[in-house]
Every structure is written in C-alpha cells, then in structure tokens.
Amino acid sequence: MSNSSPSPNDGGVGIPDGGSGGRSLAVHAATRLLGLGIVFLIGYLTRPLWHGFVYGVLYSPGLAVFGGGAIATALVLWFAPPLETDGESAKPLLKLLRDADSPVDVLLDMQGSAGRKLRLFVTVVGVLAVLSILVSIPAGQFEQRTLAQDTMEQSVEVDEFPQANPENPRVVPRQVADITTRGSVSYRQHRLGTSDIARMEDGSLAWSYAIQPDGFRNTLVENQRGVLVTDMTRMDDRQIDVYEEDFTYGEGMLLTRSADWNLKTTDYFAKYDDDAVEFSYEGRPYMYYPKTGHEWHLTPFPHTTPTWDGGALVHPDGRIDHLSPAEARAEPILEGQRLYPMTLTRDEMGSLGYRNGIINQLPAVGAHEGQIEVARLPAGADNEQPFVIDLEGERMSYVTAMEPFGQDTRGLDEVWFVDAETGEYTFFGTDDETLTGPERAMGIARSADSRTNWGQNFVVTEPVPVTVDGDLWWHIKVTPTDFTDVTRNVFVNADSGRTIEIRDDAAVREFIAGTVAEADLEPID
Prior knowledge:
Layout: H1 18-45, H2 51-59, H3 61-79, H4 87-99, H5 103-109, H6 113-153, E1 155-158, H7 174-182, E2 190-192, E3 196-199, E4 205-213, H8 216-221, E5 226-231, E6 240-244, H9 259-266, E7 277-281, E8 284-297, E9 303-314, E10 320-323, H10 325-330, H11 342-351, E11 372-374, E12 387-391, E13 395-404, E14 414-419, E15 425-429, H12 438-447, E16 458-468, E17 471-480, E18 488-493, E19 499-502, H13 505-513
Helix pairs in contact: 2-3, 3-6, 5-6, 6-11
C-alpha cells in the first residue's frame, strides 16, 4: 500500500510517487506550455507595442542582461514543478493571511510554491538590475569609441568648403513656415503634422507635412489625407502644393491603421527613430522612413553600434517597400530626397569626442587632446544640428559645426558634411584659424543693428551655415516675434565677422552664387 504522506524529514513537502507523480508533472508541463503559447500569441499579435523592449534586449548590452535574464528566469520558474504543502505547513500561511497588511505582504511571506518562486524572481531581478548597470557603463564607452573610429575611417578631409546651391537657400524658418502654412489651409477633420525637410518636384527644398486625422474619433476611422509641401527658399510668392490621396497606413492613425505599426510588423528588427520624409513624385504623395540597425562587437568588451539599414517607402495604397541603402539610392521615386538617418548622423557626430580614446575624454584624468564637441546653439535658435542644406548639384547635406572641448570655447574647430543620400562624410578642419560659431554669429547679427528693438518686436533665428566661394557664412533670419514673416536675411562671415543684410529673395540667391561682390552689398550700420 503506497503512502504519499510526508516523512518527518521532508520539510513538509509532499512528494507524489508512482505514476500519479509522472502524470501530475505531465499535466503541469502541458498547462504551462498552453499558457505560454497564449501569452506568445498575444505578444506576437501586438508586437509593435513591445518593439522597443525586444529590440533593446537584442541590441543593448545592458538591457540584454536585465531583460533577457528576467525573461529566462521567469520561464524557468514558470515551468518548474510546483511545491505542494500539507495542512501543517499551511498553518503559518493562514496566520499570515490574518496578520498581513496587504496582499503583497502575503505573496512575499507565504511559504508555498508561488511565494518561493516570487521571492526568487525578485531576488534575481535585483541582481540583474545591478549587473545591467555594471555592463552598460563600459559598453556605452566602447560604443562611442568604436563609432568615432568608424566615422573617422570613413571620412575625407577637404581643403575648402563645398559650394552651397544658390537656388535653394533656407530663407523660411520652421516656425514661420508652420504658422503661415497652417494659416493658409482649412481642414475640419485633419491637421498638419510635424514639419520636416523634403525636396519638391521642381528641385526646391521645402517644409513638408502629413495631412493627418485630428481628434480621437478621427484617428480611429479617418485616413491620412495626403501630404503638403511649402517652398522654404523664398518668402515672396511662396509656393504651397497639396497632394491629396488617402493613405491606407499613415500618420496620426491609431494602432493597426498607423504607418508605424505596419512598418514594425513588416520589418521588426530595425529602428524607425527619424520622422517621415513626406514628398510627392509625379503628382502622388509618398512617405519615406529611414531605418537604423545595430551590429555587435564582442571585443574588447561586448557592445553595439548603430548602422544605416536602408529605409521604408510607404505608398498611399498601403504598400511598403523595405529597401537596402543601395536599393533606396536606386529607387526613382526617392531621387533627391533625404535617405540617410538624421538621428544616426547626430549619434556619429556626438561620438567624435571619443576619437582619441576613452581615457582622453574622461573628466578627471583625460588630457582632452584634440577633443571636439557639437557646437552649442543659444536659446531662440529654433533649429538643431545637424543643419540640412543643399549643395551644388542638388545634393542635400547634413552639416554639423564642431567646437573645441571646453566650457568657454565657442569658435569652430571643424565643420562636418554628410551626404544625405549616400551617408558619405567629409570635413573641413580650421587648423589654427578661428571661425565664428552659430552662437557668436547670432550675437554679432544683433549687435550690428542697434536700431532694432530685439526681443520685443523682432528676433534673430535659425542660423544655417552656407558656403560662398570657399568661405563659411552664417545665414540668419530676422522675424517678428509672432513668426509671421521674414523681414530680412543677415549673413555673418565666420572668418572676418563681416555682416551683410539682404531683404530680397533674388539678392540672396545672387549672393550665395557669388555673382555679387561684397563691396556692392550694404553692411549693417
């Protein structure tokens, strides 16, 4: 006669014997597999919601330790056989139920199987949290170092600045474009989304907007109505083009109807950190999303670095083309548009402080030899680096001004250019020459005109670097404080500090083209 009662030395845990124990374990495993399958199915159907966490576990060393370890621990404990208790061992539990202040106290103090597993899981997660911090710090340092090395190896130093495209000066700042464009359209169920920079079909640079549903009800049932582009290269007779066509998947549409949801369901192992580039091709609206990937480096310490992973072209009918970098460059619809991720450019430029090593840039022991950092912009600049400008031949470029490391340094040390179509880097080093940075240039523009009531009626805004005949100039705009117009353009020479004021769109083009001598232009008094 079998006896399954606990022996005095078994700790109060009943150990089933014979076939019933095997059957119990089989039932336990089957039910746990079924539960896991349900959770996995729900997770798969809603996978865009967990995209950031899953991607981080795969490509972030710290989150791989914490998230991956927590998932593995939860699975082991989920499938571990239950620990049965008898009546005697349940007495302390009954006392806890009477005395505990909250259900959490019961779970943490209970002596049964669930309590033991919960305490073990909490302990492991706490250890993993500490380990993830210990891993993240060196991994982050090595990520910056590797990214800086790769950027330097792939870049080419040039002896003079590349010439700006005189046909595409950035005359209209973003705030002015937003206010004047929204004041020129009328939608009841839609609104204009976040502005971004694209190329119009005639080659001009433009601020572009998604015409997206407005209001909770409309985000559920209405579709993105198309895209709007407005010329940024002139204030007089500024062109606004609207391309209306409903997008099956678009901006401002919730959950499974959104472009973001469908991008992640069709290519899950990529990041979509950049805003969409909205533009038109042969009269039809399109959107392009640059994609970023990551690659692992196991030495000298496990870390990852971001890479360009191509892009996704969203058609109005819901078709999504996932393109490699080479395929994106060869796609006729994308000709002339921004393809390279701006967020990746920002990461690469931010890493250049590590190009002479990790120790060199450390606060206490670093020599800071040759260390550079992204030039700071003052409040009111209304833009951020990298700047987007057009070079000769309609080659859009991301431009980043770099200054020497130091709290009180504001002069330029290097100026970096990245081709927005190919991702190729070039840079100009100033060597011993001191060039004026954007913060100082804005101050020069204000101080050169003492007649204007700065801050009360007018402000200087959006400094953008332009190159004229091999010289670097800061192109600054003067606007009313309500940002309804651009009253004049101010150019500050980064070498000499000479300041020139231009009020006419055509004159701006002539100046950038180099067809007007500086002596023929009126400086600001």
